[in-house]
Specification:
alpha/beta; eleven-stranded mixed sheet; about 900 residues; about 40% helix; globular
């Protein structure tokens, strides 16, 4: 065995146990999970141990994040392995796959490649003729079923797999003398959203369906079936469908898919037998072909699935759902952990409550060091320290593994050679956060199917926990450094106000109260700092600040005292003998600085201008004032210079601002507003419940609602906007009441702008007849004072209308206000609704809002619903009403009814989750 580990195996299989490493992307992806499940099933028949190294961030676009994800492969101890399996197609990075293979061969470890991509550097290639398999399924649909009018759902253009499958489709069509027209192919990205978009665009407007949809993957096939059902058709009665991949989950989809794909059992058996043979120096084939399988099922009409099978499927799915719900509650425990703690024992005690049995958290040995301790024994190329720390773990019985040190080369703290762990796969997952690598997480899985979900949830939450803990400790370390040197600006290393004053006072030391030097005090202001910060972010603003600091340091004499007294302002104190010429110092410094700053502005190409203004004051020896006095004088000089020499960008901004103000005045004075109306939909029936009126300006004005409000605020005309909004909208509503179908109307109100008594009385006279249909929205983010709120409530009551709290959950939510004023409606902020189907934190927050509202007889609107998944999720949680682009966009003419397929989906989802009518 060339010095590698071999394991006593009692009296079986020559007393050896073989350790096989497997490198892949993500055990949570279905094809990876299927392969590993098959490996686990054969581990009970062969004397092998499987250690899986997975990165699971491989397919993200950020190259820095990919690098940290790939770090797990640098933890491999090749001397521990008898063989290594590399799925280079899964990794989607041939360079990483080659690096693993080359290192393995350097250690004389046999390399098995699960595809042909590593043919040149693998000892054995195990593969399948996927092209022939796909050809068989296309031929089955075209020739066996005698189809002529088919639509092909392809992957994305430029994707090699997608293009190969499309080529095969075209070839089979040509063999059967069938023409392939451009409108017979839809290009997706192998994911659901794009598939849905393609189908809606091609067949979502009443177009006739083809005889069949031939899909390049099971994901496309499942989404296609869903689309067919949504438009009121059925599979296979109205149209046939085929997929490709043969995922296990396809067996739970009803109707069961006709598909084809890899023989995972065949791959697993071949991998294990080949690895054992190679470890024992036996000759094996260089290339092994695994047959693929064609599975003809319900969606092409070849098989009817028995009712018993469907019942079993539903039972399995229900059990999985209930298991997952339980695990969700358990995993929320991690959010109660004090991640600021640097005490290893305190962290261990907290983490142990939620850890999976037979697992361990292993971190670099500098994990608990402060930044200023500067551990340098690991780098980007070597992200792990030679000695690692097990900060906590549990054995198989749930007993704690004590904190201890472990060599990286040992990799696994619990004995991978134990005889009694037959059938358990060890998973090695990196612990990473953003671009930082902290260690790795180990877990032995007994039941791969049931435990994978728990591992996924825990390991990813662990990454967040470790990352936040590290950032918190780093922040504390920074605070400690600043507390040691409270006189230094941490961004630039210059003196802050306290440090400047101390240095200035030192100039008086020879003669207290009387300055003996000639002083030149210059104030430099980065005038566009706020603009850069607001539009490009704090990191960009800090980068510009540091560049200004660097240029000031380069431009001034070495003995100059330089300080940063705010984000924008820098002070330079040059002190000299009375005989020196201060003009030479100032002129040289400003000339060098502005030359450097101009070069920066020319080369950034980032869409902003780093404008720096300067002012200077000179005082002769004998000055008795303070540094504050000098700064004020320099600031006045700077302001005069700025007005005198304003750069073209500033003049252009001022001109644009003036033009917008003129357009605003024209808009308001001539009452040129118009309004669009967006439906608010009943979450149980799909019927339109109300409309929200949204302010717009005509094209010749071209101001957005936010611009209108900002300018109104600057000009003191917010009340004019409030008054115009209410009267204009109600005038439109009453004049077109039949078009609105007597539905409710939501109107936004500007905080602090409650109608004056005279205007309110006029409102009552004109529109009291429709007031019961009016809902006034207030934004909690800009909450009124108690006095204003009471007057607003009095107006609402007198007008016999209702009110809603808009943007609830936007960051300023106050449950006290809800209890105090009891709104009729809460509108959940669109931030909480966006991607809610993927975000557990948002789901928990929204559930709490809805539960509170239901108990207090308050209706809840989910605002900003833009996808089907978001719609389904908020209906599941019990919202009463839905508003967003997915149901209908705002239009000048009120929409009478939402799209039938969306309405039907709402009805189906509401029945599924027993949503009550509003």
């Amino acid at each position: 065995m060339d010095g590698r580990y071999f394991i006593d195996w009692g009296e079986t299989m020559d007393n050896k146990k073989y350790i096989i490493g497997v490198c892949l992307t993500n055990i949570y992806l279905e094809h990876e999970r299927n392969f590993l499940k098959a490996l686990q099933s054969f581990m009970k028949l062969y004397p092998v141990k499987i250690i899986v190294f997975q990165c699971y961030y491989d397919r993200i676009k950020n190259e820095g994040r990919k690098s940290t994800a790939f770090s797990v492969f640098k933890a491999i101890n090749y001397d521990m392995l008898d063989a290594i399996v590399v799925n280079s197609y899964s990794l989607s990075n041939l360079e990483i796959a080659r690096d693993i293979a080359q290192k393995a061969r350097a250690h004389k470890v046999p390399v098995i490649s699960i595809d042909s991509l590593l043919s040149d550097c693998a000892d054995v290639v195990i593969t399948s003729d996927m092209a022939e398999c796909f050809r068989q399924i296309v031929k089955h649909m075209i020739e066996y079923h005698g189809l002529k009018n088919v639509f092909y759902m392809s992957g994305g253009k430029g994707n090699p797999v997608s293009e190969l499958r499309e080529k095969i489709f075209r070839e089979v069509m040509a063999e059967n003398n069938l023409e392939v027209k451009d409108d017979m192919i839809g290009y997706t990205d192998f994911w659901r959203d794009k598939t849905r978009e393609v189908l809606e665009n091609r067949f979502g407007h009443g177009e006739e369906l083809p005889e069949a949809f031939i899909c390049a993957s099971d994901v496309l096939a499942r989404e296609t079936c869903d689309f067919v059902f949504r438009i009121g058709k059925s599979v296979p009665q109205d149209v046939l469908v085929s997929g490709y991949d043969a995922f296990d989950t396809s067996g739970f989809f009803m109707p069961m898919l006709t598909t084809a794909g890899l023989d995972y059992q065949g791959y697993a058996r071949t991998v294990i037998e080949t690895a054992i043979s190679m470890a024992d120096k036996e000759n094996v084939s260089k290339r092994i072909e695994i047959p693929v399988s064609l599975q003809c099922n319900e969606t092409c009409g070849c098989r009817v699935v028995p009712t018993a099978r469907k019942a079993l499927t539903n039972t399995v799915l229900f059990r999985k759902y209930t298991d997952r719900s339980h695990e969700d509650k358990v995993m929320f425990g991690i959010y109660n952990i004090d991640f600021e703690s640097s005490d290893i024992y305190q962290m261990r005690e907290q983490l142990m409550k939620i850890m999976i049995n037979s697992s361990a958290i292993i971190v670099n040995d500098d994990f608990f060091m402060d930044d200023d301790e500067n551990s340098t024994n690991h780098t980007k190329d070597n992200p792990f320290t030679q000695n690692m720390l097990i900060i906590c773990g549990k054995d198989r019985d749930g007993n704690p593994i004590p904190p201890q040190e472990i060599a990286l080369s040992d990799l696994v703290p619990f004995d991978v050679r134990r005889v009694n762990d037959t059938g358990k796969i060890t998973i090695v997952t990196p612990i990473i956060y953003k671009d930082s690598v902290y260690g790795y997480y180990l877990c032995d899985l007994d039941d791969f199917e049931d435990e994978t979900y728990n591992l996924q949830y825990f390991s990813r939450t662990l990454n967040l926990f470790i990352g936040l803990r590290d950032k918190s400790i780093s922040a504390k370390s920074l605070t400690k450094k600043v507390s040691k040197g409270m006189k230094i600006d941490p961004q630039t290393g210059f003196y802050n106000v306290m440090g400047l004053k101390e240095q200035f006072d030192k100039l008086y030391e020879d003669d207290p109260g009387r300055m003996r030097y000639k002083l030149v005090v210059s104030l430099y202001t980065l005038a566009t700092w706020q603009y850069i910060f607001q539009n490009f972010g704090i990191e960009e603003a800090n980068m510009v600040s540091k560049n200004v600091a660097k240029n000031l340091e380069a431009a001034n004499p070495k003995n100059a005292i330089i300080g940063r007294i705010s984000n924008e302002n820098y002070i330079i104190i040059n002190y000299m003998d009375p005989s020196e010429n201060e003009g030479d110092v100032v002129n040289n410094a400003t000339s060098v600085f502005y030359s450097l700053n101009d070069k920066y502005n020319e080369n950034t190409g980032k869409g902003y201008y780093a404008e720096v203004n300067a002012g200077c004051t000179v005082v002769s020896p004998g000055f008795k004032g303070t540094l504050s006095d000098l700064i004020k004088i320099a600031n006045n000089e700077m302001l005069v210079n700025r007005l005198r020499y304003a750069n073209p960008e500033e003049r252009k901004k001022a001109k644009n601002s003036l033009e917008k103000e003129q357009k605003f005045i024209r808009l308001v004075d001539n009452n040129m507003f118009f309004y669009c109306f967006q439906p608010i939909v009943d979450a149980s029936t799909g019927e339109i419940y109300a409309y929200e009126a949204l302010m717009r300006s005509p094209q010749e004005i071209g101001l957005s609602p936010l611009e209108i409000l900002d300018i109104a605020d600057e000009l003191g005309r917010l009340y004019d906007i409030e008054k115009a909004t209410i009267f204009n909208i109600l005038s439109t509503y009453t004049s077109r009441i039949e078009m609105f179908g007597n539905k409710k109307l939501f109107i936004n109100s500007i905080p602090g702008q409650t109608l004056k008594t005279k205007d309110f009385n006029r409102l009552m006279e004109r529109y009291k007849s429709v007031s019961h249909n009016i809902v006034i929205e207030i934004t909690e983010q800009n909450a009124r004072s108690d006095e204003e709120m009471e007057r607003f409530m009095e107006m609402i009551s007198a007008f016999n209308s209702q009110f809603a709290v808009d943007d609830y959950g936007s960051g300023n939510s106050n449950i006290v206000n809800l209890l105090k004023f009891s709104p009729n409606v809460i509108k959940i902020d669109r931030y909480l609704v966006e991607n809610i189907n993927e975000n557990v934190n948002k789901q928990m927050f929204v559930k709490n809002i809805i539960e509170f509202a239901r108990k207090n007889n308050i209706k809840v609107i989910a605002e900003g619903v833009e996808t089907k998944d978001e719609l389904d999720t908020v209906i599941k949680f019990g919202v009463n009403l839905i508003q967003g682009y997915y149901t209908a966009k705002p239009k000048p003419e009120p929409v009478v009814e939402i799209a039938p397929e969306i309405k039907q989906n709402i009805i189906e989802q509401s029945r599924l989750y027993n949503v009550c009518n509003v």
